[in-house]
Amino acid sequence: MNVIVNESPVEIAENSTVEQLLNHLDKPLKGCALAVNQSIISRSKWSEYKLREGDQISLFQAIAGG
Question: Which of 46, 54, 58, 62 is an S-S bond match for 19, by CB 3.0 to 4.6 Å?
């Protein structure tokens, strides 16, 4: 199935979770925030939240600095 991550199409397996998507993208699970269709998904839900065809995912990396 296809989802959109930060405005780029990504093909993933059916019934993939947010955690599986991040592993597929080789993104660290720590230091990220994520929204699906403009709704923030709590990190505690990433392993169970199932993505659907066409979902719009916004992935944010935390940046340290001052």
Answer: 46
The reported pTM is 0.86
Q: For the chain, what are the domain ranges?
A: 2-61
Question: Which numeric CATH code is attached to 2-61?
Answer: 3.10.20.30
Of 27, 30, 29, 37, residue with least CA distance to 57: 37
Q: What is the pLDDT of residues 6-49, one digit of tens each?
A: 999 999 999 999 999 999 999 877 888 999 999 999 999 999 99
Contacts 24+ apart (CB under 8 A), 47-52: 47/17, 47/18, 47/19, 48/17, 49/17, 49/18, 50/15, 50/16, 50/17, 51/1, 51/3, 51/12, 51/16, 51/17, 51/18, 51/21, 52/1
